[in-house]
Model the fold of this input.
Amino acid sequence: QVHLVESGGGSVQAGGSLRLSCVVSGYAYTSYCMGWFRQAPGKDRERVAAINYISLIAETSTYYADSVKGRFTISKDGAKNTLYLQMNELKPEDTAVYYCAADLVLSGHFQDSTCRGRADFDYWGQGTQVTVSS
Done:
């Protein structure tokens, strides 16, 4: 079974930074679509960022919600099987539980447009709390 284990959440003052990690295990894959989502109390789950890798052409594409562009960076370390979300210039409105998500394949790949808009992933992490105080 695929397991996604998140870490790196915590409390920080506005303007600070945090780096979230998501370690993926239990599946051999080549191409992938992965993402970060967040959910605040009483609100719907929101897409924060996504990363798509097409192994056939060794191409990586990233996508960001308008609310985090220029502040957050999504990346993937293939050797460590770890997904990251670097969060800078944090704001109180960034406060939420953050979840990593993944769809992994041994054959084929995801279209960039499909990955960018993907919401119902097959695999999810447990979530990590991020609290930003003013």
Notes: Residues 112-117 form the longest helix (6 residues). The mean pLDDT is 95.
